[in-house]
Amino acid sequence: MAFGLINYPIHQIHQLAKALRDYVGRETPLYHAERLSEYYKSINNGNGPDIYLKREDLNHDGSHKMNNALAQAMIAKRMGCKSMVTATGSKQHDLATTATCAKLALECTVFMANFVLKVMDNEFLSTLLLGYGVLPMRRSACAVTKAVIQEFLETSN
């Protein structure tokens, strides 16, 4: 629904491309996995694919997640939103979202599954250092979307 409300002036497309290049670290290289390609060719009588790996792990946040987070945050800001809410079970989505919100001066609330909160690693600490609230989800990690909606409704009242 919101997508239909957004027109993309060419300058905003250029802004996104520039942010992806300068802030995320794109374009990431393709890596020819020669030994893997040779393996599949050797078991198929010389026939097989040339396998290339897209090195999204070389992005500044270490994953592909910021590509989407940045575009969505830019759309949200254009629509007049002042804050974003995210949920995570992987601990990379929260870092991408909070870093993007910090760049665009948006507020951000992160809901994390309880089992994720028990593992204090560098990505989790990065989220805290960016100054955003991290709230535990009391519900099952299997129902993350429903849990985020419910937790958001409960904490916003």
Automatic annotation (TrEMBL):
Protein name: tryptophan synthase
Protein origin, superkingdom: Eukaryota
Residue span, Tryptophan synthase beta chain-like PALP domain: 25-114
Cofactor entry: pyridoxal 5'-phosphate
Pathway linked to the protein: Amino-acid biosynthesis; L-tryptophan biosynthesis; L-tryptophan from chorismate: step 5/5
PROSITE patterns reported in the protein's UniProt record: TRP_SYNTHASE_BETA (PS00168)
E.C. number(s) listed in UniProt: 4.2.1.20
Alphabetically ordered keywords of this record: Amino-acid biosynthesis, Aromatic amino acid biosynthesis, Lyase, Pyridoxal phosphate, Tryptophan biosynthesis
Amino-acid biosynthesis among keywords: yes
Source organism: Phaseolus angularis (Azuki bean)
InterPro entries recorded: Trp_synth_b_CS, Trp_synth_beta/beta-like, TrpB-like_PALP, TrpB-like_PALP_sf
Signal peptide: none
Upper lineage: Eukaryota, Viridiplantae, Streptophyta, Embryophyta, Tracheophyta
One MF annotation (Gene Ontology) recorded for this entry: tryptophan synthase activity
Entry's Gene Ontology cellular component terms: cytoplasm
Enzyme class: lyase
Catalytic reactions on record: (1S,2R)-1-C-(indol-3-yl)glycerol 3-phosphate + L-serine = D-glyceraldehyde 3-phosphate + L-tryptophan + H2O
Keyword Membrane: no
